[in-house]
Amino acid sequence: MYNGDGYKFDKRELKLSTNAFLLPVNPDETITFYVSIESDGDLVSLPISIVSDDYLISMTNENNLFIGLFYGFLMLIVVINLFYFINLKDKVYFYYILYVIVLGIYAAARDGLTFQFLWKNAPYWNNIAVSIFSSLTMVFILKVIQYTLNTKLNFPKLHKIITYFTLVILALLVPLFMPKYYAFYINFGNILASVAIVLGIYTIIVSIRKRLFFAKYFLLALAFLIVGTLMVVLKNNGLPGIFQFEFWFKLFVTAEIIILSYGLTVLFNNLLQESKQQAIDRLEQINYMKEQVNMELEIKVIERTKELDKQNKELEILFNEVVQQNIQINEQTEELKTINNQLIDRNNEINQQKEEIRAQKEEIEKHRDLLFEQKQKVTQSIEYAKKIQKAVFPGRSILNEFFSDFFIYFKSRDIVSGDFYWFKKNENKLFFAIADCTGHGVPGAFISMLGIALMNELSFGFLNFSPAEVLTKLREMIIGVLHQTNEKFERSDGIDMALCFFDREKSVLSYSGANIPAFVCTTDNNETVFKILKPNKIPVGVYPIRKNFTNENIQLQKNDVIYVCSDGYQDQFGGEHNEKFMSKRLKQLFIDCHKDTMINQYNILDINLKKWMNADTENNSKPQIDDILILGLKV
Q1: Are 568 and 412 in contact (CB under 8 A)?
Q2: CA–CA distances in Å: residue 222 to residues 219, 226, 237, 248, 260
Q3: DSSP character string of 121-171
Q4: Nearest to 220 by CA among 249, 263, 162, 191
Q5: Which residue among 5, 316, 331, 601 is buried most deeply as judged by most CB within 10 Å?
């Protein structure tokens, strides 16, 4: 009699998923049976049992009932998560569905069900299927961990390690169709499983330390998976108790699936709530914008009405003046007759002067056209200079890699600006600065171009210096380039600047400032805390007192907001009393709106500035007096 996974299923004497033989045994008869066992995969646990037909049927029925419940549960999990995937289009649910499917196929292969129902005539494929699907479970559970814990954003290096490890597993599966390699992979697969478990545990631990949602579910689920996997490894290494191990393996796997499914259900509800909240926020934003537009229209209507009333009063005054003038004209008619004779006499003289005036007019028009042409050329040159200045500003896409959201509010007073922003990344660090150069327009733009060029030159050595040391070196370079000697009547051109280094891994902000502070809005126990990083009261340039710049470090938390700005916004005149906006109002504006999205904060700053400049409707809008630059960053 021959049996086992090395033969086609239809050759089995008993068509069961387990290996069973009909033994010809008669009552009161002693027979000796010899068994030869050969395995190129799992070890076969001994002793082998000899049971009656009734007992085999009873045991098979009980086992089938338990197996049916187990695989029915897996199918239910697949259907539920397929619903989540269709609605959210989230890859987490896609990989989780694949994980549950390959886990079910792996369990079915161990139970002999796939050999019985799927590939009866492929014994060799039946043997390697266990290794293939067990390896795929490792691949897909690691992908679920990657996408659920967002390792690409939170742990970039660990994300790459997991990705390369899964690719290695897939590559190692290709030679499994070679019999000699299969014998090697049976033992090597346990090593891969151990490495996968270590990677998963490490990822979950660092995620828990970072307080990431879902990490706690993975920790509990992985504990059950490790125990279930340990039982399979014990069985593969020859420990007796085949049915007990298979039974407990399915129970622990079921517990793991329940925990992960519950966690994904919670994740689905959270995503659903976030989606609803985003829709509500968007609706509130639209309503707010509508109110702002209506408010602006009302202001314009009021201004237009006042303008029309003023024009009507002016027309009434003009009408009365015309009536009075008509009376005077009638009185003066007689005088004009007398004067007319005098005018006739002077007409000839006027005609002569007219010719002279015409010649002078032509000369003036030539000078006017020449001045207009020169002005147009100068304006075109400044417009081109604006393009050059804009080109040297850094690309804003760098900020997306380090902050969840941001805005740059930039309004130059003239065509070109004396304010500039600058940032540069180096691995996990971002260096960024806000600067206000002496003057505005073309002179300020020259200083800003010089500042950007020097910052780009200094940036190659940032890793070895603090922000204060960089400002000190920049000051020396500006003094040298502008040949400043600190003499009494010399122009003291320079730069006010706030320079920050942000370490993404440690979430630490290092700051040093020259007359420009930085602000941080954070939330502590549901209360808003407004922190001011104070600057040194010296510019980056020549100054009578040469003091050192100082550093200040601050630990940031998630959703903290950083603000850095020049003095253009707070120095803008406006309001009912034609006064400066002042830093106190600007700080309160940051506190009031820091929890809004960055696009909302940008709009609030813009609308608030326009209202401030247009508050005194009698004298119309106040002109912008300086360049304005505000940078907002959300951690």
Answers
A1: no
A2: 5, 6, 22, 15, 9
A3: T-HHHHHHHHHHHHHHHHHHHHHHHHHHHTHHHH-HHHHHHHHHHHHHHHH
A4: 263
A5: 601
